[in-house]
Amino acid sequence: MYRDLFLVIKSYRFKFTNVEKLIADYFLKKKEPLTIDELAKKLFISPASITRFCKKLGFNNYKEFIYLYKEKLNSIEIESATFNNIQQGYLNILKDVDENFDREVLINVCEAIHKKKIIHLFGLGSSGLAADDFKFRFSRIGKFIEVIKDYNSVRMLMPILNKSSLIFILSLRGKSEDAILAAKNAKAKGATVISITSNHKSELIKYSDHTIYTAKLDKVDAMGNISGQIPLVISIDLIYSLYVDKYKNAVKKWFNTEKAINKSK
């Protein structure tokens, strides 16, 4: 019944006397918890009025009411702190992305995407989820995207890679041995390799034709407060937005072709 004490107080408002409304307003404003005598003195009312207020809400006495009230205030503070931490985490990510933004690199990446019809993406864990987002976006504008989420599949892919191939390696921390090995082998086959990472010292860089640096997650964020794919997805947003703007005629042509095909069915 009292899972949301403040909602309960509001629902009883029409039953309150003027004095009880005064008491209700005090608690709805989430003011400091006081003893019954301190509250009576502060509001210029009698302790008996406060007791009647509590009983009208279904409590046996003020002590029972104020105990729950304190609990609710504590939970609100915890929720507020959690929200503020996450909000600050997102702001830090956006700031980091902005500081790492390199338009020239993004233009080169968009040109590589434009020249290739088939694109391979390699990512493990949260990087794989970001790769799925890339596939969803670019598949809609005529690109064939293959997402690879384990190194065994990469091994099977290697024999068909050549100079006309484009492979993205997504690794936020840039320390995955599988990701580095995939980049190394793809580069050896002559493929164009693009990496997205937050690690400026990653070994991925030396095997990449282009590297997009994204935001890193700090220790608190990395514990799960913020999804690991967020920094990668933001970079994908930037790539997609620039690509659609730069190649708007090609994108429009694809949509018109797709529309004509659908009409003919």
Automatic annotation (TrEMBL):
Stored Gene3D superfamilies: Glucose-6-phosphate isomerase like protein, domain 1, Winged helix-like DNA-binding domain superfamily/Winged helix DNA-binding domain
Segments forming domain SIS: 109-249
Domain of life, per lineage: Bacteria
Residue span(s) of domain HTH rpiR-type: 3-76
Keywords, in A-Z order: DNA-binding, Transcription, Transcription regulation
InterPro entries for the chain: Homeodomain-like_sf, HTH_RpiR, RpiR-like, RpiR-like_SIS, SIS_dom, SIS_dom_sf, WH-like_DNA-bd_sf
PANTHER family named in the record: GLUCOKINASE (PTHR30514), RPIR-FAMILY TRANSCRIPTIONAL REGULATOR (PTHR30514:SF21)
Protein known as: MurR/RpiR family transcriptional regulator
Organism listed in the record: Clostridium oceanicum
